[in-house]
Amino acid sequence: MAALTLADSRQAIAEGRTVVAVCGQCAARQTIPSETCFTCGSADLSIRPHDGRGRVFSWVVCHFAFAEQYRAETPYTVVLVALDGGARVYGRYDAGSPPLQADMTLALDPAATKAKGYLVYRPAE
After folding, report:
1. CB of 50 within 8 A of CB of 20?
2. pTM
3. Is residue 1's pLDDT more than 70?
């Protein structure tokens, strides 16, 4: 039994990876830090690594930097990825990649994630 904490998520990103919390009661998966399952309310969560592979669920292009450190990166694309096996996670779409398409398969870029400090996705090969 372990809650998924913000520290867990940040540590995974610093290492170029992502994690999910899996509910021991209903098997739901989630990536947002929480002490309980969003589906059934159980506290029986286990934290597991995930390879970050999934499909585009949605995206938005940001033309305004909401934090000063991202001003030089505008415009940038934030993508909502439906991870394989369940759960969704937000990340950035690599600016040098081909245009996004609905349901496109994406892969986490561990090196870029580690370097940038946030999840970075590219088209899967």
Report:
1. yes
2. 0.90
3. no
Strand locations in the chain (E) = 18-23, 29-30, 45-50, 54-62, 76-83, 88-93, 105-108, 120-123
Q: Both tokens of residue 44?
A: 């029986």
Edge-to-edge strand list for the sheet holding 18-23: 29-30, 18-23, 45-50
Q: Which pLDDT score is estimated for 5? A: 85
The three-class DSSP label of residue 83 is strand
How far is residue 5's CA from residue 57's CA, in Å, rounded to a whole number?
A: 24
Helices (H), the chain: 6-14, 110-116
CA angle 11/16/20 to nearest 5° reads 60
Give me the amino acid identity at 78: V
Tokens representing residue 22 in the block? 């899996």
**pLDDT tens readout for residues 62-96:** 999 888 988 999 999 999 999 999 999 999 999 88
pLDDT of residue 62: 94
- Domain range list for the chain: 6-50, 54-123
